[in-house]
């Protein structure tokens, strides 16, 4: 049985439907939660070794790579872990913050996005091929964006940012394929009301949109995982 290591940077950043599909496809999924206290992001649980894993799955985070000081006890180690896994030809699939980590680890850049995206958005094809994830809509929740590292293919984007990159067995997204209703509700309930107001997010409206999209998103998430396992890794 192949083994996947999912890196959840906070308790609400779990791999959700991605883990569900990986398990359905025969993977054993271990979830490592890095930080357990939102007020103390530098208190971290040591990372496990990648030696016993075939796939690395770094997930989203409320933190930002534009301010590494608040997470400097662990962020550089994770960047090194991603870089080493990629260089060794292991499977790496990064989601949102995880996609940004891939970019920075492999020579790209992460910056504050001129547009904050929170909600359901459609994606376009990338410069280097058709979008294998499909147009969506896909869940977005990000304030930063990444540039593709050298040698990466851009497979999806929208007007504000690159959304899907691939370099060998390594794939990074800016969107959140893993979510369902419970997942989005946990994001919203942990967000302060003044933050939601500042971002123009209406709790009830986003929950209703998520309920409308949930079943379709589960199917497209599973199809995205299948694409990664059957096409990316097969090559």
Measured on Cα atoms, how large is the radius of gyration?
Answer: 16 Å
What is the fold-level CATH name, i.e. the topology? Rossmann fold
Q: What structural class do you assign from the helix and strand content? A: alpha/beta
Which second-level CATH architecture applies?
A: 3-Layer(aba) Sandwich
**What's the order of the H and E elements?**
EHEEHEHEEEEEEHHH
Helix content: 25-40%
Q: Classify the beta-strand content into a percent band.
A: 25-35%
Number of domains: 1
Low-confidence stretches: none
Q: Can you count the helices?
A: 6
Write the layout of secondary structure elements.
Blueprint: E1 3-8, H1 16-24, E2 28-33, E3 55-58, H2 75-87, E4 91-95, H3 97-105, E5 110-121, E6 124-125, E7 138-146, E8 153-157, E9 162-167, E10 170-173, H4 181-190, H5 193-199, H6 203-232
Parallel strand pairs: 1-2, 1-3, 3-4, 4-10
Antiparallel strand pairs: 5-7, 6-8, 8-9, 9-10
Helix pairs in contact: 1-6, 2-3, 4-6
């Amino acid at each position: 049985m192949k083994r996947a290591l999912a890196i959840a940077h906070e308790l609400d950043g779990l791999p959700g439907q991605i883990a569900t599909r990986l398990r359905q496809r025969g993977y054993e999924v271990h979830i490592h939660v890095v930080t357990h206290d939102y007020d103390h992001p530098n208190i971290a649980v040591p990372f496990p070794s990648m030696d016993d894993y075939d796939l690395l799955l770094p997930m989203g985070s409320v933190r930002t790579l534009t301010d590494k000081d608040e997470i400097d006890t662990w962020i550089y180690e994770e960047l090194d872990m991603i870089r080493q896994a990629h260089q060794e030809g292991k499977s790496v699939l990064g989601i949102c913050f995880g996609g940004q980590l891939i970019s920075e680890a492999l020579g790209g850049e992460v910056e504050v996005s001129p547009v904050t995206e929170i909600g359901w958005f459609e994606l376009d094809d990338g410069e280097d091929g058709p979008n294998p994830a499909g147009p969506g809509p896909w869940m977005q929740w990000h304030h930063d964006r990444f540039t593709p590292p050298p040698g990466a293919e851009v497979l999806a984007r929208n007007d504000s940012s690159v959304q899907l990159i691939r370099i060998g067995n390594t794939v990074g997204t800016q969107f959140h394929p893993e979510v369902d209703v419970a997942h989005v509700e946990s994001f919203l309930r942990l967000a302060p009301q003044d933050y939601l107001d500042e971002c123009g997010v209406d709790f009830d409206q986003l929950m209703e949109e998520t309920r409308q999209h949930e079943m379709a998103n589960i199917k497209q998430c599973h199809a995205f995982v299948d694409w990664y396992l059957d096409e990316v890794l097969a090559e």
